[in-house]
Amino acid sequence: MIFGVILAGGIGSRMGNVEKPKQFLTVGEKPIIIHTIEKFYVNDSFEKLIVLCPAQWVSHTKNLVKKYLKDEDRIVVIEGGSTRNETIMNSIRYIEENYTLDDDTIIVTHDSVRPFVTYRIIEDNIRYALEYGACDTVIPATDTIVESDDSNIIASVPDRSKMYQGQTPQSFKAKKLKDMYNALTEEEKEILTDAAKIFVIKGEPVYLVEGEVFNIKITYPYDLRVAETLIEGDK
Ligand SMILES: Nc1ccn([C@@H]2O[C@H](COP(=O)(O)OP(=O)(O)OP(=O)(O)O)[C@@H](O)[C@H]2O)c(=O)n1
Ligand SMILES: O=P(O)(O)OC[C@@H](O)[C@@H](O)[C@@H](O)CO
Predict the structure, then answer these.
(1) How many domains would you assign to the chain?
(2) From the CB of 223, is ligand 2 less than 6 Å away?
(3) Cβ–Cβ under 8 Å, residues 174 and 1
């Protein structure tokens, strides 16, 4: 079985003092999270779309799903976790409790604040996860990447031709992801900013899926202006 996992468990602190987490802000007359869910909703490969949000926003999210999407049976809204990867683990726990978690269970995990993901990117994630067990959506780095150990002096300037920027979806064999995550130390979990690194730390291959420059993550107020422009372009 293949599940869409929409990660909306964050509070959007870098968006500044807004009355609600950024995934619920409106862009192009609809909440960002609805734009994102719609991109998965049109793909028939998913058994279920699992949307995970902060506990105090679950009923709000359920109301949004009811308002904007017809077939509510395809979507379940549950509570996210204390970290992005704990949110993913909550989605796997839901699958274990309501379906079967086995070697054929695939999850396509996606940031709820990346509303411009495309059907092709999602399809490629499904295909690669089925074939290889783990994949990460990326784009080639456009800026030169600089590494510093002390935020003061350059430690290295890696070869840009080998550098990529991670996006989402990140898609996995769910059972393998859960087993490897549970085998990590607390220190290893602390440094994670995504899920693909769980495989990488354990020396397991993660295949690259070609992303799109416009598959942005809405993080700062500036990104909202970019998103409005992109939405205008979609019309
Ligand atoms: N415990 C968490 C933390 C983050 N996310 C999700 O992971 C995605 C990308 O993370 P990020 O952009 O960092 O979102 P926030 O954590 O909400 O933002 P900030 O770091 O500015 O607070 C978002 O869709 C966010 O909702 C999640 O599902 N569960
Ligand atoms: O740094 P942030 O916590 O905003 O992002 C966490 C993840 O969403 C991010 O690592 C993936 O989108 C891949 O870039």
Answers:
(1) 1
(2) no
(3) no
pTM over cut 0.95: yes
Domain containing 88 — which CATH number?
A: 3.90.550.10
How remote is the CA of residue 140 from the centroid of ligand 1, in Å? 23
φ/ψ of residue 31, rounded to 5: -60, 145
Residue 23 phi/psi, 5-degree rounding, is -65, -15
Convert the pLDDT of each residue in 63-88 to its tens digit: 999 999 987 899 999 999 999 999 99
Sequence ranges of the binding site for CTP: 7-10, 81-87, 112
Q: Which residue has the tokens 């935020």?
A: 151
Structural domain boundaries enclosing 135? 2-234
Q: At residue 56, what is the residue type?
A: Q
Q: Give pLDDT tens digits for 82-119.
A: 999 999 999 999 999 999 999 999 999 999 999 999 99
Pocket test for ligand 2, best of 111, 117, 219 (most atoms within 8 A of CB): 111
As for the ipTM of the complex, it is 0.97
**Sole residue written with tokens 């990660």:** 7
Atom number, ligand 1, closest to the C-alpha of residue 82: 1
State pLDDT tens for residues 128-163.
999 999 999 999 999 999 999 999 999 999 999 999
